[in-house]
Amino acid sequence: MVLANNRTITFEEDADIKYDKKGGITAKTGAEQIKVSKEATKETTLNTLIVPKGKRSSLTLADGSKVWVNSGSTLKFPSTFKADKREIWVDGEIYIEVEKNKAR
To answer: pLDDT tens-digit profile of 12-36?
Structure first.
């Protein structure tokens, strides 16, 4: 996973990654757990999740939507969404359960 500040986090096993509403990250892989707090930024920045072949990852976005990312896929997403829209970019295969929000 490549964070917006170019910090790279590598997982040896399949990862379950969760973003909170403030953009903080909790990632679990097997017995390992990683927490990253959101760095203050004025603009919405994109993070990139790259899932290598033979691996899978799941991700909970800041809005509560749950994304399963298949092997060989790349997902770009903001730490937090803008007030008027929710956009992500994908190259490969994902399954997503979008959290309902009538305001967006």
So the answer is: 778 888 887 777 778 887 777 777 7
- Could you tell me if residue 10 is inside a domain? no
DSSP letter assigned to residue 54:
T
Enclosing domain of residue 66: 15-97
Residue with tokens 């072949």: 53
Beta pairing, strands 46-51 & 57-60: unpaired
- CATH number for the domain harbouring residue 74: 2.60.120.1440
In a domain, 27, yes or no: yes
pLDDT in tens, 51-97: 999 988 999 988 889 999 999 999 998 888 887 888 899 999 999 99
Element (H, E) at 60: strand 57-60
C-beta atoms surrounding 73 within 10 Å: 20
Domain count, the chain: 1
Contacts of 74 (CB under 8 A, 6+ apart): 48, 49, 50, 51, 90, 91, 92
